[in-house]
Amino acid sequence: MAGFTDTFLREQLLDRRERLNSAMAVSQQGGSLVALLNEVDSALARMDEGTYGLCEACHESVEKTRLLADPLVRYCLDHLTPDQRRVLQDDLDLASQIQRDLLPREDLAFDGWQVAYHYRTLGPVSGDYCDVIASAEDGKDWFFILGDASGKGVAASMLMAHLHAIFRALVATGLPTHQLVERASRVFCESTVSPYFATLVCGRAWGSGEVELCNAGHCPPLLIQAGQVTRLEATGLPLGLFCEGRYSVETLRLRPGDSLLLYTDGLTEARNVADEEYGEERLSNLAGERHAPRPRPLLDACLDDLSTFLSGSPLKDDLTLMAICRTDGAHT
Ligand SMILES: [Zn+2]
User: Fold this and answer.
1) What is the pLDDT, as a whole number, of residue 332?
2) 247 to each of 46, 138, 145, how far by Cα in Å?
3) Ligand 1 center to residue 63 CA distance, Å?
4) In angstroms, what is the span from residue 51 Cα to ligand 1's centroid?
5) Residues near 272 by Cβ (< 8 Å), separated by ≥ 6?
6) How far, in Å, from the CA of 71 to the mean position of ligand 1?
């Protein structure tokens, strides 16, 4: 625990001691406050001895993020008591449920469109962001968003929930697509501490078959038309890197039978036992060969191929795929 963290944690502990001392001067609950004060004093003493931040069971370092959240933590994750473990598990279960509830309904249909997605978390929660939002105006257009917040686990899932709230609020303003993403980037940038960022694709589709696509540094979506697959490159930098980031949109027109396939790098960067990467090329070839004009079969084909490729090797990242198919009006 050297440098910034050390100084920061010492200040946190000194601040706690001061607060506890002033609370004790006016409170009747002397006993519990004395116990807390002893814990703070003991942490400060361990800092002076140089043993602060080491697990009292195994003497390895306690996870830094946990110390920042609670400077009094004395055991690493591996050496929590059964009760502490149960509390932590309950928290994660609840967070996981809340995140599931933030996902859009499965297998949605809009005028001339069908959408499906697959969302698989590596741990209890995911840093992938996936949403489908009907426009507030007249229901003629709708948004689809797929993104990936930097980092993994709980911290990334909080960024995901943050993005969800930002986009849900901004869609209702009726802003043009590029301005919506610019505004989202600014809010995200101003409310998160560097170096956190998120890559994402924000698309807006109309019943006419027109689609606007804004790609903020995310894996290129694939446009599939009659067996031809086109990569749609990023049109801007990831969200949150620069508060004043500018974005542009690419406009497409899809005909019945055409599809868009969006994914996170949990798919293309998946590795098999031979340490080979799944890769964009394999995905692109598969999308061309196995293209179905319905989103769910297209996703199933991708997932089957990934599972064949992995042949039992575990995924190392969250995984999200979204397929958007243009149907003729009669089939919606
Ligand atoms: Zn330990």
Assistant:
1) 39
2) 50, 25, 15
3) 10
4) 13
5) 278, 309, 310, 311, 313
6) 16
In single-letter form, the type of residue at position 51 comes to: T
C-alpha to C-alpha distance for 175 and 194, rounded to whole angstroms: 27
Quote the ligand 1 centre to 65 CA distance (angstroms). Answer: 15
Share of the chain above pLDDT 90, in %: 69
Neighbour count for residue 155 (Cβ, 10 Å): 15
How do residues 14-72 score in pLDDT, each as one tens digit?
Answer: 999 998 888 888 877 677 788 889 999 999 999 999 999 999 999 999 998 888 888 99
Nearest 5 degrees, angle CA 113-CA 117-CA 122? 170
Nearest to 7 by CA among 68, 81, 51: 68
Q: How far, in Å, from the CA of 48 to the mean position of ligand 1? A: 21
Distance 74 CA to ligand 1 centre (A): 9
CA 209, CA 255: separation in Å to the nearest integer?
Answer: 6
Give me ligand 1 centre to Cα 59, in Å: 6
User: How many C-beta neighbours within 10 Å does residue 32 have?
Assistant: 9
The pLDDT tens digits of the residues spanning 194-249 come to 678 999 999 999 999 999 999 999 999 999 998 899 999 988 899 988 888 899 99
Q: pTM to 2 decimals? A: 0.80
Task: Give kind and range of the element (H or E) at residue 185.
Answer: helix 177-191
Structural tokens at position 281: 């090329």
| pLDDT above 80 (res 4) | no
Quote the ligand 1 centre to 242 CA distance (angstroms). Answer: 39
- The pLDDT of 174-184, averaged and rounded, is 95
**Mean pLDDT in residue range 319-325:** 97
Enter the tokens of residue 35: 């116990």
Distance 87 CA to ligand 1 centre (A): 18
DSSP state letters, 240-294: TS-TT-----EEEEPPTT-EEEEE-HHHHT-B-TT--B-HHHHHHHHHHHS--SS
